[in-house]
Amino acid sequence: VRKAKSVVTIHDLAFMRFPEVTTDEIYRHHMAWVPYSAQRCDRIIADSLQTKRDIVELLDVPEEKIDVVYLAADDQFGPMDPREARAVTDRHGLPETYFLAVGTVEPRKNLITLLRAYRKLLVDGLTEPRLVIVGPKGWKYNPIMEFIKEHDLEERVIFTGFVPDDDLPAIYNRARALVYPSVYEGFGLPLVEAMKCGIPVVASNLTSIPEIVGDAGLLFSPTDVARLASLMKDVWTDPGLHAKYAALALERAKAFSWEATAEQTLAVYRKALETG
Known about the structure:
Blueprint: E1 7-10, H1 14-17, H2 24-40, E2 43-46, H3 49-59, E3 66-68, H4 82-91, E4 99-102, H5 111-123, E5 131-134, H6 142-150, E6 157-161, H7 168-174, E7 177-180, H8 189-196, E8 201-204, H9 209-213, E9 217-220, H10 225-237, H11 239-253, H12 258-274
Parallel strand pairs: 1-2, 2-3, 4-5, 4-7, 5-6, 7-8, 8-9
Helix pairs in contact: 4-7, 5-10, 8-11
């Protein structure tokens, strides 16, 4: 009997790189199945060059077996009429503008560093910005809540929880910048969503993030609180800098489309059929 061809997509190997930021249950499950699947399949699709490198190193898979296919942001993401965007953000109780973080509230997203940098801004006298965090609570989020309470930030930091996909473009549009301090990403979809909406990106310089952002973002080491605070201050207070990185973001976002993702994915499946 002829063995069926198979293609496996691996979005990231965060559970191997940072086992301390996942649950024991997820770790055991992924360790049982991901290496097995990677060895058995005919082709592997990785979301980024970073994920491809991780697969080669951690799963001992030959790099010629792996194809990189980038993800993209949906067509609904893009610059919006300010009045339409405001109608959405008003419904969510959000301020005029704000720093925005998007992602599950969990250790890998490194929100503690963001909160430390945000507090430094306030202590140093830049008291206007609010911080909006969009995303559901994951796990091990108690230290984040404790930091907010300890430093009296309850009135400054807004947690929206889960937000419907249809409302996200407006929330991006009204933000002064996306701040993305994650310590590990296989791709980082909010980066592309934000860039497509034309807002500057202030992001960690680790893993796939520089690969996705290119020269269109302001990057920092995810442990460097002072550097992050400085970049946040600059993008908030310097209109020229803000305009420059907003324009760069829009241009960079053109590199990612679902049409290209679909075409490249189909090519990988055809390649799998031709092997062996």
